[in-house]
Each structure stands twice: as C-alpha cells, then as structure tokens.
Amino acid sequence: MASDQEKPSVGPILPPLTLPPTDFSLRKKWLEQRIEQLLSLILPGRNRIGIAVLDLDSGQLVYGKNADLQLNIASNVKLFTTAAALTLLGPEYRFKTVLYGDRDKTDKAGEWKNIYLRGYGDPWLSTEDLWKLTNELTVRGVKKIKGDVIIDDSFFDEQRVGPAFEQKNQDSAYRAPQGAVSLNSNAITIRVLPGISEGQPARVILDPASAYIVLQNEARTVGNGRTSLLVDASEEKDAVAGRERTIVRVRGTIRASESSGMDFHKRVAHPDLYAGYTLVDLLSKRGIVVVGKVNRGTAPPSASLLDTHYSQPLGVLVRDINKRSNNFTAEQVLKSLGADASGKPGSWQKGLQAVGRYLETLGILPGKYHMVNGSGLFDSNRFTATQVVTLLRAAYRDFRIAADFVASLAVAGADGTIAHRMGGTPADRYVRAKTGTLNGISCLSGFAATPLSAQQPVRPPLAFSILVNDVDEAGGTATAKRLQDAIVEALVAFHSGSVAPAK
Fold first, then answer.
1. Using one digit for the tens of pLDDT, what is the confidence trace for 340-353?
2. What is the model's pTM?
3. Which residues touch 380 (CB under 8 Å, ≥6 apart)?
4. Domains defined along the chain, listed by start
C-alpha cells in the first residue's frame, strides 16, 4: 500500500545510540532501557503496542512488551500467507493459464468451433502473456472462431471480493477482485492527455483497450487553468449476466501544457469478462475473426490443448507480496493454496484452513488468533507479536523456504516499502522487514542483523515484531514508524555484541 512508504516525521530529539555492554546480561538490560526510553519519548500516549524480540537459536524472548496482546497487524498478515504458501506449495510452484479449443469434423481448414481460456489463479498474467498464447493459434493456421471465446474460471469459487473488503467500497486498483482468470491484476490504466488545443476534449487512452470498458470522457483541455481530474470506475447497472461491463468516467480539466499526461489505475468489476474481451481484441490483431461472443463456461474434457503459459515461480512472486505489499497477489495465492489443499474451487475458507493447519505445526493454535484474509486489509485480522516472531523463526529455520522467504522482505534503506527508512543509520541494509499500515495502525516485523568480523562466530539475526495500534490521528502513523526505526537500530547495536549464553 502506498502509505507504507511514508517518511517518518520529525519528532523529539533522541539521546544518541551508544554501544551496548559486552556482557550479555548487561547488554540485555541496556536494550530494555533503550526501548523503554524510546517509548516514553516518541509514543507516550494511549497507544496499544506489542513488541517481541526473539533469539532465533534458542527461541527465547530477548525483549517483550505486551507480546501476547492480540492486535491488528495490517499487512504483516502477508508474512503468514507467504510462509504457509512457500511451505505447502513449494518455492518452485508455478501458476498456469491454459488455452484450449474444439472443432467439428465438418469445420474447414483454419476454422475452430470455440476456444477456452482456463485460469489457475495466476496473479501476474499480463496482456503480453495473452498475446503470446494467441501466437499458437497463428502457428496452427487458425483464421476463424465460428463460436465463442469462453472463459473457464472454475478453479476458484464465485466470491470475488475478500472477507472484510466490504468495509470500503472503493474503485482503487489495490482493492481489485479475485479470479482464477485474472489479467493485469484485474486493473486498468487510464492515461489522460490534453487535447489538441484549449477547449478540446481531453484524450483518454485505456491500457489495455477493451470492449469490456465503457469510456465516458467529460474532461476538457484548459490553457491557463489548473489540472483537476476525477476518474472513477463502476459496474454497469442492470446488465444481462455475461454482458456486464465496467464504466470508466473521466471528468475535470487538464492543462494544455501537461504534455506527459496523468495515469490512473482502477479496478475492474468482472475479471473473467475483462480477460475475455482483451483476448478477442488480441485475436483480431492476429487477423483471427471471432464470430461469437465472450462467454463464461468450462472447457470440456474433449477440448484440445493449444498452449500453456506458466508464471514465475512462487519464490519470485512472494517478493511482490512482501516487498511491495501487493494485496491482490496475496489473495490470489491464498485462494490457490485452498484449491491445492482441499480441491477446487479454491476459496478463502479453504485457503485459511490450510494456513491454520500450517500454523498448528508451529504451536500457533486455533482460537488464539483471527485471520480472515490473506493481505491484512481493513479491520479484520488479529495476531500477537509473539506469534509473528514464532512464524519468522520457523520460516528462517526451514531450509526448504528460508532463502525465498527472507529474500521476499524489504531491505532497509534499499528497496520495497522501507527503501526510504533507516538509510544512513546502523540498520541500513542490515534489516529485512514487512511493513503494515492502516488508519491508526503501523507494524514492522522482520529480521535485524549486523556486520560480523572474520573472528566472530556466525549467528542468525534477531527476529522482531513491533505492532502499534490506536495511533493518535494528530501524529499519524509516521510517529509510530519513527519509533519502530529507532527500536530496530537499537536491535542492530544489540546484535553486534557477544553471543548469548547457550540455553
């Protein structure tokens, strides 16, 4: 989410970070005092805060404050979704999208009856991927589809919007619906450019161009006025089933000097139809005529396999989820996990059950947490800081997924949602973490390490979780982020000391 990348605001001047004592017991006391000092200086209000710092070797808490308090962890939920998916599906798992076709014996050369596009939940399927799939039809000499382009979405159930998503009815791309056939993250890009001259309609370009989208352009070009555009997307009302469309309305003004234009990203309402109409457009560009319509249905067992597109491995996709906090990808992975674990159609319930079974193996028991979706959006999910670091330890110590899981986290001062945090501090590039930001909520969980000399024994980083709820609106979540960064910098300093006594 975009708010995850806000820079912390200026607050009270903090005492300089001193080097901790060498003795472990004294160093632990130093860490406790430093964190309590930061809490009193940065967030002394009536916020609810849960903090847990875990030694990955022993599994013992190095520091805890309200560590067992259930809190809304926002996008930190993605840690649970990705760890479970990597473990149960494997980092090598690939999503597929398959193109089928059928013919009648009486069909002439170059003619096919229908073609079918069957999806298996690929969150990264793009217009370019669809274009490559249509190439196989060109190779086979297909010139005409006498029947329909049929979208087979049966790998998922019919629930498009995730649990708790109904709390906000927005057309933002981050709230896009889910579908087994999903194109361009089920969002469309609307570019608005000035017209040829003042007073002319603005130019609006849709990417991808699709008969599924109804464009209502009411925007005008102005010479000396200011650019003020309003773009919204809504579902067409009272449409016949299977003929629904998304209406994009562009209003306002754009300056004639705004030569580069402005981009807007909006969700579509019907992922299957969106993909279907885009496919028809691409077939037309290949010179293939489609006589029929776009329809919903299932590919019959007798249909011929034409081509298959495979996604990047899950080990790559989880970086999109955790580094960029991609909500759409997280929910697609959760529903796919449900289909794989309990059979199709994939659903949120099946996906959550699979995650729950995985968490039980870690000692995180049902009834001790509340998880309703895979992305952490809205006021829904509840975990404790202890449960978060327990998950982090399990993922770090599982050789099968550790490299992919850790690599999926944003790097302090370098990339992802903490690219602009902790840069130039001792934590710069020594912290990998996942952010979580909602109104009044800020969370940061991950791993903190430190440079080691050749003489020091190799040891794992610390796992930490800093969960802040009920932040005063006056200070906003930026103050909570400042607290998190300061605590993490103290963890890096703490980690640089001597090894903890063996347990």
1. 999 999 999 999 99
2. 0.92
3. 72, 163, 164, 167, 370, 372, 373
4. 2-76+376-495 (3.40.710.10), 96-159+271-310 (3.50.80.20), 189-267 (no CATH)
